[in-house]
């Protein structure tokens, strides 16, 4: 009876041991598989880390190259700015020199025109040498009219015995530009010119329909005489950069007679 029980117990132990061995083997197999998978994952992770490190190294190298290029670019920009500053300084010096040259040239031209005017005055040819070459241009510049006719040194004698010499007359559009030229502009000449315009149509009845604009010209123009002539509505011409030029104030509108 005891032998039977012992045998049963042995059989039970063998069964349990078999189950234990089976279970342990299964667990070890699973463990081995897990370890193998972990090793594979570790290898993959290590490779990925190596690739990442390599990529980071390439990136760092590229960043270093980029920084170097940016440094070079900044240095080039600094050089360019310095060159531009030098160029601007040189241009300023050049402009200043050109302004001085232009001012000197204008002053020389004015002086030459003045000397030419003085010579023409001595020779009695102010109208021929100063007014005739200038009046057409001035009419175009100041009135936007192209003269169709310019006459100088015209003498008219009336049946009643009156006679007069007119320095210059220019016809343009519906206007007649009447000039009187003096060496020095004086208030008394302005008054005389008013009378000359008032009697002008007696000598030139053919121009009754024309509007008359008076032009006074002189080598020397005192400021008080200029202002007086302007108040009376006359264009005033004097020696300038272009032989003769308008001396009236900006925005001046001449009187039409």
Description:
Helices cover 64% and strands 19% of the residues. Strands 1-2-3-4-5-6 form a 6-stranded mixed beta sheet, sandwiched between helices. It is built from 5 helices and 6 strands. The protein is of the alpha/beta class and 257 residues long. It folds into 2 domains: 1-123; 126-246, Trna Endonuclease, Chain: A, domain 1. It is rod-shaped and about 190 Å long. The protein has helices spanning 2-123, 126-143, 187-198, 200-203, 223-231, and strands at residues 149-157, 163-172, 175-184, 211-220, 235-240, 243-246. Helix 1 (2-123) runs antiparallel to helix 2. The longest helix is centred in the first third of the chain and has 122 residues, at 2-123.
Helical content (DSSP H or I, runs of 4+): 55-70%
Shape: rod-shaped
Describe the main β-sheet briefly.
6 strands, mixed
Count of helix runs: 5
The largest beta-sheet arranges its strands as 1-2-3-4-5-6
| Strand portion | 15-25%
Radius of gyration based on Cα positions: 55 Å
Order of helices and strands: HHEEEHHEHEE
């Amino acid at each position: 009876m005891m032998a039977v029980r012992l045998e049963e117990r042995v059989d039970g132990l063998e069964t349990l041991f078999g189950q234990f061995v089976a279970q342990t083997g299964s667990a070890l197999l699973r463990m081995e598989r897990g370890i193998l998978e972990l090793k594979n994952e570790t290898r993959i992770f290590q490779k990925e880390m190596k690739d990442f490190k390599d990529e980071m190294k390439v990136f760092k190298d590229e960043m270093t190259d980029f920084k170097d290029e940016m440094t070079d670019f900044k240095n080039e920009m600094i050089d360019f700015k310095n060159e531009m500053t030098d160029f601007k300084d040189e241009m300023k010096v050049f402009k200043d020199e050109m302004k001085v040259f232009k001012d000197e040239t204008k002053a020389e031209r004015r002086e030459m025109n003045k000397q030419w005017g003085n010579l023409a005055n001595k020779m009695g040819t102010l109208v021929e040498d100063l007014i005739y070459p200038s009046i057409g241009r001035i009419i175009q510049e100041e009135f936007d009219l192209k003269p169709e006719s310019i006459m100088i040194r015209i003498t008219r004698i009336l049946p009643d015995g009156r006679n007069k010499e007119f320095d210059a007359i220019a016809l343009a559009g519906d206007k007649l530009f009447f000039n009187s030229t003096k060496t020095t502009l004086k208030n008394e000449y302005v008054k005389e010119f008013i009378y000359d315009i008032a009697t002008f149509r007696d000598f030139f009845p053919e121009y009754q329909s024309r509007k008359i604009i008076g032009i006074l010209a002189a080598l020397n123009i005192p400021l008080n005489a200029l202002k007086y002539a302007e108040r009376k509505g006359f264009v005033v011409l004097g020696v300038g950069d272009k032989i003769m030029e308008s001396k009236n104030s900006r925005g001046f509108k001449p009187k039409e007679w």
